[in-house]
Design a protein that fits this description.
1 helix; about 300 residues; mainly beta; Immunoglobulin-like; five-stranded antiparallel sheet; 3 domains; about 5% helix
């Protein structure tokens, strides 16, 4: 005799599966769940049922049913004697219960289609759809979907500040399939342009606590959309019209013009800053102040 799952009375929903519509005269039906192979399971409305389990208190109405993941096996068909199915091959689908009977989920051999994400910051949520499957979400660097042999189109959901190849096809032919999804960050140039210094004079700026030194009349840094704090360190004997501020990158490059003016005596603070920078440069080698940039970027300047 089949084993019984815990007592069940539908809650929520509309129509006959709404408790407010049930009365003492409401007819309740028995639904027995069958899975092929027997180690798989079915989600029926808000409960999960294994092979051979049954429910004997199901009111007439429409219920969402889902063939739950079962290793790499995939649903091939639904059959029922308990009512009518909205679809015989998709999951989830709807079963309208109108009599006692069985609900059978038949699985077939499938193969894992693995999507590897490259380029996103760890923990970023991304998603995709594959064939007729529901949208798949992940904050890890993989999304794995089982599919039977066949060709399936996929679509990658767009993410702000990144671009990627958003559509393509997965060809499953008797073996697992791996597809790499590369996200390329969109960056924009932040340019600090100076005037007033003799050619070859060393000056520097700090953007988000990262210093950059130059002997050229400009400093260029690539960044994503966002707000950034900056400071300007004049060389000894000079002051600047802009010493600090906040800039916002919003879909286009940004330019900050810095005008240096000679002072009568070198500023002690400027001497200290330059000496400190010189010490770090001497210790780490020229060019130690390199702005860390992502390897894969689409740059606008």
């Amino acid at each position: 005799m089949p084993s019984a799952a815990p007592p069940f009375r539908p809650t929520g929903g509309t129509g006959a599966d709404d408790p407010s519509t049930l009365s003492d005269s409401t007819t309740l039906y028995n639904v027995t769940f069958v899975t092929v192979p027997s180690n798989c399971s079915i989600q029926f409305f808000q409960g999960v049922f294994g092979n051979g389990q049954w429910k004997d208190d199901v009111a007439e109405g429409s219920y969402t049913i889902t063939a739950l993941p079962c290793g790499s096996d995939v649903l091939t068909s639904w059959t029922t004697t308990a009512g009518q199915l909205s679809s015989n091959t998709t999951s989830p689908t709807t079963l309208h219960v109108s009599s006692n009977g069985t609900l059978t989920a038949t699985y077939g051999t499938g193969y894992f289609v693995t999507f590897n994400e490259i380029g996103l910051v760890t923990g970023t949520q991304w998603s995709l759809s594959l064939g007729t499957a529901l949208l798949q979400f992940s904050t890890a660097n993989q999304i794995v979907v089982p599919e039977p042999n066949g060709t399936y189109n996929y679509t990658i959901t767009s993410i702000p500040d990144f671009v990627c190849k958003q559509t393509g096809f997965a060809h499953v032919d008797g073996a697992p399939v791996t597809i790499n999804v590369t996200f390329i960050s969109i960056v924009y140039e932040i340019s600090f342009s100076e005037t007033g210094l003799p050619s070859g004079t060393t000056w520097s700026i700090t953007l988000q606590f990262v210093p950059t030194v130059s002997t050229e009349p400009y400093i260029a840094i690539d960044e994503l959309n966002g707000s950034y704090n900056f400071t300007v360190q004049p060389p000894p004997g000079y002051t600047a019209n802009v010493l600090s501020g906040t800039l916002t990158v919003a879909g286009e490059p940004q330019t900050i013009s810095v005008t240096f003016t000679k002072t009568s005596t070198p500023s002690p603070v400027s001497l200290w800053v330059l000496a400190g920078l010189g010490t770090v440069i001497a210790g780490c080698g020229l060019g130690a102040f390199a702005v860390l940039r992502r390897q894969r970027r689409m740059r606008f300047k």
